[in-house]
UniProtKB/TrEMBL annotation:
Superkingdom of origin organism: Bacteria
Classification via PANTHER family: BLR7761 PROTEIN, YJGH FAMILY PROTEIN
Provenance organism: Aeromicrobium terrae
A Pfam family recorded for this sequence: Ribonuc_L-PSP
The protein's name: RidA family protein
Amino acid sequence: MTRRHARSGSPFEDSIGFSRAVRVGETVAVSGTAPVWPDGHVDPDPAVQARRCWEIALDALAELGGTPADVVRTRQLIIDAADADAIGAVHGETFGDVRPASTMVVVAGLLDPRWKVEVELDAVVSVER
């Protein structure tokens, strides 16, 4: 089976040794994705952060031939339960018609203290695009 990788340009890809996303056969896994803009900026609003996370994750999925309709599972790691509604609403905007299996977990912290959310997704892409 062919193994393909997508890169996002994160400085951690080389130093830690990971890919933004990996496709093997029909399966695509997108790594934990943080709300960082190319210039390093992080917006403090949790909904804006969630949108940025999904934008990056879905761009990686698209690079490997997938679409939001192919997503079968999502994970959202948040640091404050008070942000769950805002972050969850963005998930609904993004995947409301797809309705993947999904988990949202409150964690003690994320790698960068500016981040309020980090996301992951898994997809099954049956047709090479």
